[in-house]
Amino acid sequence: MRGGLWQLGQSMTRRLAQADKKTVARRYFSAEAELKKTVLYDFHVANGGKMVPFAGWGMPIQYKDSIMDSTLNCRQNGSLFDVSHMCGLSLKGKDCIPFLEKLVIADVAGLAPGAGTLTVFTNEKGGAIDDSVITKVKDDHIYLVVNAGCRDKDLAHIEEHMKAFKAKGGDVSWHIHDERSLLALQGPLAAPTLQHLTKEDLSKFYFGEFRMLDINGVHCFLTRTGYTGEDGFEISVPSENALDLAKAILEKSEGKIRLTGLGARDSLRLEAGLCLYGNDMEQHVTPVEAGLTWAIGKRRRAEGGFLGAEVILKQLESGPPVRRVGFFSSGPPPRSHSEIQDDKGKGIGEVTSGGFSPCLKKNIAMGYVKSGSHKAGTKVKIVIRGKAYDGVVTKMPFVPTKYYKPS
Question: Do β-strands 362-370 and 347-357 pair in parallel, antiparallel, or remain unpaired?
């Protein structure tokens, strides 16, 4: 799905308010029969979730509160997201790390057991196939989560390379965790609320770490990570226990943590300056252009050995032709594909994500501009519906991140 989910949520809300609901329902839910459903689908509907098709799944775009209120509540209290449409998988075997390092830019071997990182799967031209959070559980076990919209191409890509790797004697196998569901618990109340449901001391568990532990009496995979810029966790739970866990989290927060949909998830990740694959990263965009140079391990920069390494290492040396940057702007909120011009009216790039920031109460956006026009403070024009509005390049994240790290 291209374009911001935030806009989709706003337009759905307006149409549901204004239009004949049967017509709207036909339009938005005509493909419902073919859509996959998470185990929480009925729970979302019962709690007022407005369901939309997303990456082949029926997912809640928002609940009874507005996307604006949901976003603010996540920053002030907390949010619980059903992200079971995403694909978790494990790679196992004594060669799983050298295998994975052929496909991603991270220094996987250099991770401590139980540590994780954001990485990018690259193609032969150095472009991004997908971004993923990967964790080195042990030297012979990697756990990773890939995006729902990229699942089929990611799994085909991994499988193709795995066959070739195993044909040469490599020891690697995989398991796709379709028997598990994934919940994302985000915000300042995430840790204190989850602490009620586990005996493990979460204060010793930092951003990027992974553990297998009992939560609400069930064996879960817990990663201290998320997609909002807030402190929080992603919890992989056996699907038959997902509903009980979701209810327990909401109950223990005494109503302060709310079920939250894809609309607020989009505004939260935009405020945090995080990429949405399919908008801000695509197969022709390298990690260097996307501003993810930090994710390329030091050893990988020296040795290469991953797909597209030649292109990426050359960009590290001489600089990329374009760069992902953030913007503040006047006028209507910028949208995906809005043209970016320099102060003389010459085209220098385009917006990939944009919207009104609920927290900052102003327009924010990210996009790609030609190198040289990427420095913070550079004045630009952003063209929306044929009219140019003033904008300025700014550093990201727009809203300060609150990841839980050792002090």
Answer: antiparallel
Which residues, in sequence order, are bridge partners of residue 92? 141, 173
For the full predicted model, state whether its pTM sits above 0.85: yes
321-394 belongs to which homologous superfamily?
Aminomethyltransferase beta-barrel domains (2.40.30.110)
336 vs 280: CA distance, rounded Å: 9
Q: Annotated binding residues, as ranges?
A: 234
Q: Which residue ranges does the chain devote to CATH 2.40.30.110? A: 321-394
Pick out the residues of the known binding site for substrate.
234
Fold of the CATH domain 5-84+179-271: Gyrase A; domain 2 (3.30.1360)
pLDDT tens for residues 6-46? 555 555 544 444 444 443 344 444 456 689 999 999 999 99
